[in-house]
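Q: Hi! First time asking for a complex rather than a single chain. Here are the components, and I think there are two in total. Is that enough to go on?
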Amino acid sequence: GAVVSQHPSRVICKSGTSVKIECRSLDFQATTMFWYRQFPKQSLMLMATSNEGSKATYEQGVEKDKFLINHASLTLSTLTVTSAHPEDSSFYICSANPLAGGEETQYFGPGTRLLVL
Amino acid sequence: GENVEQHPSTLSVQEGDSAVIKCTYSDSASNYFPWYKQELGKRPQLIIDIRSNVGEKKDQRIAVTLNKTAKHFSLHITETQPEDSAVYFCAASKNNQGGKLIFGQGTELSVKP
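A: Yes, that's all I need. Here is the structure of the assembled complex.
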């Protein structure tokens, strides 16, 4: 149980375009999901907390107008990178934990590798 | 905000030896400390975690110790095997943040056969 999927797994786009990444909890519901970004040979940096039915909470230094987050249901959060530029190229990973039982364990999606040309 | 420091950044051991990775955290309110293993291009996989009401936890070859007073926790891997080679991340979180994890910088472990 506790499976998180992401789509797409890999995307290449031109500079200036927007890219949408989906994060789904397949066998559990989650009011909260998290979006991380990981540059090569670096750690996972939390970008934002996605809250079902309300606005996302962004970490300091993360532009909310550039990284749009929508958490429309208890199993789906989307991250849209708007007007992507080469410096946005990175590995984007989401995570979620099941609602029930106050479980703290975070389950990660497989990640989306974004390359902006 | 919370800060997690992890050392060393790289660690090379011979197969069969033990490996120890250490982390310190800044926020004394942190109460959950997971360790993740990440292979190249893959998602982080939880390998062990510990909560603040416990000082040590063991799962086969892997153990984690927590010193709340000093605000540090360590990962111990015994009888290392080549398949243990990966990047390991420690993390910390607080209950009232709904699972938000702050990660350490990572340790690249290489186990030489």
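A: Chain B touches chain A through 24 residues (CB under 8 Å). Let me know if you'd like any chain examined more closely.
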